[in-house]
């Protein structure tokens, strides 16, 4: 029994220590954002690494998610004779929820884990220490550009994901199943509000970008400098990012859409 | 990777994002609809608004002409008061009839405006006098059953 | 700098340092005059690498003072510390080259970060440093394509890019074949003399150390136990020095980690020396 409390206490303390470490780290990252923003070339490089290289998986996933939504949505809607509403069903699901959320989950798996592994290896091979000894701040030089790349890339990826999804739904719904194209688009446009739906969705993606970006760089920067340490940091990035994205999504959805429709 | 190649790739990536956003704005969403601050306000009172919600479209002859901006209950008369925002280019005569209609059998409810023949037009802040409340399915069915029952009891006599 | 030229470049007084509850340096005193190559030797886990961390300001001493060129390293704020580090070079154990940059870009890194020199000047400087370590031909290679010895030399070229006054070497010979180790050793000596640097080498390699160092200190139990020259090491019959120089497994530094008596532990069946779990 005492053993149990001892373990619980130790766990609590280690979690608190980790949170404290994370808070200090986030403070340091934010304090150096302005400096980091001046290094355009570095940022471009990291957007290429995180954003451009995630494009393929985002496009393909978006297309398939849209196609599946169309098939399943049609199945349900046609029972009530409302197959024409397919466009609005698909577009609203994508723009409000699936676009930002699925893009963020894919981004955490594709780019977040890679960033963690990269920074973790830089730490394990003393590259960060070497930089620090060369009087170059590793947080401004290595961490901030990677964090900002996530911040910039994820909203772009989310809107591309949603667009690909709408196109996928169009291909299945209109071209394959044979819903009237006019009804598909007009229902969609009647129900999707640019500001309330599209921009809110983008804002969600931005918040997810901050979360996934911070978690990835934090886990990498504080990874144990061993092969095992880097691999478990990579896993933690994906797990913690995914849970954070889903939790944040719930909170944001309640805040944004409560009272609307 | 070559620096200029990277720049081109990132530039294309951002451009694709902008195209996707434009697609969202013009094709998927209704950015062009109008800003909620634009247009003039009308008020309509109903005994029952049914499933009408804030942001529901206001249509005339099937064309979207505005949106429901606010719905509240009048504390004295217990009527539902719907605040509408109508696009400035559309004008409606003073005897316009406002009705709450459902698109399709189970579709969303919207407010339909049927223009009358009056030469006076409704101005900002004015009220649509003639309204027709939402059809509540339960009431309809109840009424139907009552009528049937009344009919059959009449037949027996 | 107000610091006089003839004063020692490095002065450590009564330094205590450790990690958590483990004390690794306990009352260490060390003075290094300018121009000298000092080798710090001692068993693993004796705080030799921590010593480099203290000098570079990456570790902060628990107590005592660490002075480089008269400045208290532990008490410097961020920008003064970076100003001091610009005048230091450090060669990490496995080179710590930036794996995503080519050899050329690795060496250009300190110039691009710390100076406003035009790219043509940087190019010439990089080639000069590469020439100094004999690897001008490898400028376009990536670090992953280099052998261990070559990577170490590139890292050395990068460390001396800004012509530091003080060079810190963390195990520069570890994992190298004798020829590569010899090349690194000779480079350390040559660079030290040619550029008027002061060097501090943390190492296990007795042969190379005896060949290039001006002075050797042996660290044990967190403090300096011998302070001698290579000649003295060769001639000495001090048991402690002989154990290091000849690599004897047992001597004043015991082979065994402290443990209860062997027979007693085997018979008692207890792990960790106690009987608490019995």
Notes on the protein architecture:
The complex is a heterotrimer of chains A (261), B (157) and C (278). Chain A has 10 helices and no strands. Chain A is mainly α. The model of chain A has no long low-confidence stretch (mean pLDDT 91). In chain A, helix 4 packs parallel to helix 7 (138-177), helix 5 packs across helix 8 (181-191) and helix 5 runs antiparallel to helix 10. Chain A is 86% helix and 0% strand. Chain B has 157 residues and is α/β, with parallel strands linked by helices. Chain B has 2 domains: 1-32; 40-142, no CATH class. Chain B has 2 helices and 8 strands, in the order H-E-E-E-E-E-E-E-E-H. Chain B has an 8-stranded mixed sheet, with no helix packed on it. Chain C has one domain (10-241): 3-Layer(aba) Sandwich (Rossmann fold), CATH 3.40.50. Chain C has helices at residues 48-56, 78-85, 103-114, 119-132, 148-159, 178-194, 206-212, 230-235, 239-246, 262-268, and strands at 10-19, 22-32, 37-41, 63-68, 71-72, 88-91, 166-170, 198-202, 215-220, 223-228. With 278 residues, chain C is an alpha/beta fold. Chain C is globular, with a radius of gyration of 21 Å. In chain C, strand 4 and strand 5 (71-72) form a beta hairpin. The longest helix of chain C is centred in the C-terminal third of the chain and has 17 residues, at 178-194. The chains are: A mainly alpha (261), B alpha/beta (157), C alpha/beta (278). Chain A binds chain C through residues 121-122, 125-127, 129-137, 141, and chain C through 56, 58, 82-83, 85-86, 88, 90, 92-94, 96-99, 109-110, 113-114, 155.
């Amino acid at each position: 029994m005492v053993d149990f409390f001892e373990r619980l206490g130790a766990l609590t303390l280690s979690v608190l220590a980790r949170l404290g470490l994370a808070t200090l780290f986030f403070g340091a990252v934010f304090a150096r954002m302005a400096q980091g923003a001046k290094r355009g070339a570095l940022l471009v490089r990291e957007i290429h690494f995180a954003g451009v290289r995630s494009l393929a998986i985002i496009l393909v996933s978006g297309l398939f998610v849209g196609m599946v939504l169309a098939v399943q949505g049609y199945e349900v809607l046609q029972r009530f004779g409302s197959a024409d509403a397919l466009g609005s069903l698909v577009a609203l699901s994508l723009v409000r929820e699936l676009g930002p959320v699925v893009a963020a989950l894919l981004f955490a798996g594709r780019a977040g884990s890679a960033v963690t592994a990269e920074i973790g290896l830089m730490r394990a091979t003393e590259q960060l220490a070497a930089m620090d000894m060369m009087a170059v701040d590793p947080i401004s030089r290595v961490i901030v550009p990677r964090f900002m790349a996530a911040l910039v890339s994820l909203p772009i990826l989310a809107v591309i994901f949603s667009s690909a999804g709408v196109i996928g739904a169009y291909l299945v719904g209109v071209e394959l199943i044979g819903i009237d194209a006019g009804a598909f688009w007009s229902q969609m446009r009647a129900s999707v509000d640019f500001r309330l739906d599209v921009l809110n969705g983008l804002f969600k993606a931005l918040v997810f970008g901050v979360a996934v970006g911070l978690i990835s760089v934090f886990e990498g920067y504080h990874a144990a400098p061993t092969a095992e340490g880097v691999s478990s940091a990579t896993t933690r990035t994906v797990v913690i990012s995914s849970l954070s994205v889903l939790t944040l999504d719930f909170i944001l959805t309640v805040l944004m859409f409560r009272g609307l429709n | 990777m070559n620096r200029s190649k990277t720049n081109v790739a990132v530039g294309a990536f951002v451009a694709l994002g902008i195209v996707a956003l434009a697609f969202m704005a013009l094709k998927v969403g209704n950015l062009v609809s109008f800003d909620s601050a634009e247009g003039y306000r009308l008020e309509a009172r109903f005994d029952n608004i049914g499933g009408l919600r804030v942001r529901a479209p206001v249509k005339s002859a099937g064309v979207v002409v505005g949106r429901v901006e606010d719905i509240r209950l009048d504390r004295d008369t217990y009527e539902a008061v719907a605040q509408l925002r109508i696009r400035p280019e559309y004008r409606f005569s003073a005897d316009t009839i406002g009705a709450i209609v459902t698109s399709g059998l189970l579709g969303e409810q919207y407010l339909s405006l049927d223009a009358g023949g009056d030469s006076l037009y409704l101005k900002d802040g004015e009220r649509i006098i003639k309204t027709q409340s939402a059809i509540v399915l339960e009431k309809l069915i109840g009424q139907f059953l009552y009528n049937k029952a009344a009919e059959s009891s009449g037949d027996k006599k | 700098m107000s610091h006089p030229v003839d004063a020692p470049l490095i002065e450590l007084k009564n330094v205590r340092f450790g990690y958590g509850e483990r004390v690794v340096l306990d009352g260490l005193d060390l003075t290094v005059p300018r121009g000298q190559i000092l080798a710090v030797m001692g068993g693993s886990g004796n705080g030799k690498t921590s010593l480099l961390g203290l000098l570079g300001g990456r570790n902060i001493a628990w107590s005592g003072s660490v002075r480089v060129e008269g400045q208290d390293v532990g008490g410097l704020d961020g920008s003064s510390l970076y100003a001091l580090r610009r005048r230091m070079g450090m060669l990490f154990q496995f080179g710590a080259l930036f794996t995503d940059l080519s050899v050329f870009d690795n060496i250009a890194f300190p110039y691009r970060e710390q100076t406003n020199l035009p790219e043509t000047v940087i190019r010439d400087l990089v080639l000069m440093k590469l020439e100094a370590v004999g690897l001008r031909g490898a400028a376009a290679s990536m670090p992953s394509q280099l052998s261990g010895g070559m990577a170490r030399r590139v890292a050395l070229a990068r460390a001396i890019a800004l012509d530091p006054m003080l060079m810190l070497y963390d195990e520069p010979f570890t994992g190298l074949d004798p020829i590569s180790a010899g090349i690194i050793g000779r480079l350390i000596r040559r660079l030290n003399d040619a550029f008027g640097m002061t060097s501090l080498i943390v190492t296990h390699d007795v042969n190379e150390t005896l060949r290039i160092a001006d002075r050797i200190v042996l660290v044990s139990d967190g403090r300096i136990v011998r302070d001698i020259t290579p000649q003295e090491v060769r001639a000495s019959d001090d048991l402690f020095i002989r154990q290091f120089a000849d690599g004897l497994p047992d001597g004043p530094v015991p082979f065994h980690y402290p443990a209860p008596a062997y027979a007693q532990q085997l018979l008692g069946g207890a792990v960790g020396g106690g009987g608490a779990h019995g």
